[in-house]
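Lecture notes, unit on protein representations.

Consider one protein chain, 243 amino acids long.
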Amino acid sequence: MATENRARADAHGHPEGGHHHRDVSGGWLRPAVFGAMDGLVTNVSLIAGVGGGGANSHTIVLTGLAGLAAGACSMAAGEFVSVSSQNELIQAEVDKERLELEHNAAAEQAELAAMLRHRGVSAATARQAAAEISAHPEKALAVHALEELGINPGELPSPLVAAGASLASFAVGALIPLIPYLGGLHVLGFALGLAGVAAVAGGGMVARLTARPFWRGALRQLLLAAGATGITYLIGILIHQVS
């Protein structure tokens, strides 16, 4: 039985009976969610704006496709630069910590012991643990980075993953209000209704993913999308009336 339990622990990375956590540091969830909702809201607002301005279906489709391509590329570029810059900043701080460990080992060990004491570890245990951790430079660096910077240097998000997730999700979100027009149904109200259903579904699923009530996320996303769409639609109508 003990052998079986150890095998299960090795297979799952933690002892049998332990709880599982989802990966929250992979760098794809935030840009994917943000990209999908941004694509939906941006493109339905564009379509509503030009539709309210009296544009024909050809202009609406052209505007929607242009918004999809431009927004997806912009989101991907922004995510890549943002995550890359963040990682570079973190790496610079980690390198600074590495130098401190190399040139001021005793002071860093004492600092680690103090941090452990601050977490409630007894003085003797803190000193012993700090000494054992400091005997392994890379482990010591990881612990110092986690305690002082709040990050794990080995688990930084990937700029490419963030950019790819953002690009793909924005494109999917932006495509939804275009579906009726691409299918030959040139009715603005139908496109707005489909976007509303997508906003409810997307907001609700995000809420469930984070253990929040479905209705709360759905209502929040619907109100945000409706607000942005309403503003651009009114702008389109005003410009159409004065032109």
